[in-house]
Amino acid sequence: MNRASQLSVFADRDPANPILLCDLLDELLSAALVDEATTRIATAPAVLRELPGVRFREARCALLRGDAKAAVDLLQPLLTDMRDAPAGVVHDLAYAQFVQGQFDEAMETLSRVGEQRGDLVAVALLKARIFHRQQQWSAALEVLAPIQDDTRLPEVQGMRALLLLDMGDTARASTEAEQALNGDPDQHEACIVCGTLALWSQRLQESTVTFERVLAKHPESGRAWLGLGQDLMLRGDVPAARALLTRASIQMPDHIGTWHALAWCKLLEGDLAGAKHSFDKAFALDRTFGETHGGFALVHALRGERKEAEESIKRAMRLDPQGRSARYAQSVLLFDEGRVDEAREITDDILARTPGAGAVPADFIFRLREIVRPRG
């Protein structure tokens, strides 16, 4: 008989004992038996269900079911009523707010954790994840910097690796990821980093295996769906890539890179309206991102809308002089003028400098132009 079964027997014998109920719930949740834990709470005496400890565990059940709103509804009154709320209550409420995209509220909640209380590593990791979503890379790394030795160190190292990757520091990202995987071969963020670096180096078999391994354990990992979708794009399976990237955009609606990848997938299918829609989604997240304006420029250029394309190119180049999409748009305009050699020089340079672009034909943008250009 395992410990959960033993505790179940004891709890059945003494159903009014809150300590036994909480111990049983903890054991069930640690074994991922969320439905059984939920049933236990639902059938417990009403007086026990109102206890803070039981409500806290009911909120954990809600979080594990993916119902962040229900968790907030359960935890917010606990935080309000308890002058010295346990760190677990603070963390779980902040995490539920984070999941709902309430980043400022989550940070405000985390400010309730004192310096000497609770699982400070968990709090630091959550703060880093919030900063990451807000693209405050340095702030996220600063939060994690003091953590050098802990049972959750591989998770900290994996988070550092992902931050460094998104900052463009691939060498340090690779080192951190390797260290994380030495401690935990399945560490989520470290695997994402390794898969992405393999993708950029066109080690497609390695990247595919890595992303599929992540999804086997984390089926809601938007970064893994993104990576696998980009993998399929490089293999030339654009329809399948579009399906995966669409799923990634659902999982990560506030990740600009996902909307850009999906826009490019639609471009490769000749779906200019769909590409424009995806660039619009990216624009709504950040109006100052040069590559998004470059995307608008490319759509205009492919439609033959020269004036609009030139205006978008100017905005894009001002924000990002080396932006890929704006330079592709320039190449299309040059091609329209008959300056074919100059146009091809631009595309050749882009492909030479873009990670993972070797599988893309050098003249694909001009083929696409011929497909989508309205006939006179």
Written account of the structure:
The chain has 376 residues and is mainly α. It has a domain at 287-376: Serine Threonine Protein Phosphatase 5, Tetratricopeptide repeat (Alpha Horseshoe), CATH 1.25.40. The protein is 76% helix and 0% strand. It has helices spanning 3-13, 18-30, 34-43, 46-49, 52-65, 68-81, 87-99, 103-110, 120-133, 137-144, 153-167, 170-183, 188-200, 204-217, 222-235, 238-251, 256-268, 272-285, 290-303, 306-319, 324-336, 340-353, 364-372. Helix 3 runs antiparallel to helix 5 (52-65), helix 9 packs parallel to helix 11 (153-167) and helix 14 packs antiparallel against helix 15. The longest helix has 15 residues, at 153-167. It is elongated and about 85 Å long. The N and C termini lie far apart (78 Å). The model has no long low-confidence stretch (mean pLDDT 90).
Task: Name the features.
elongated; mainly alpha; Serine Threonine Protein Phosphatase 5, Tetratricopeptide repeat; 23 helices; 376 residues
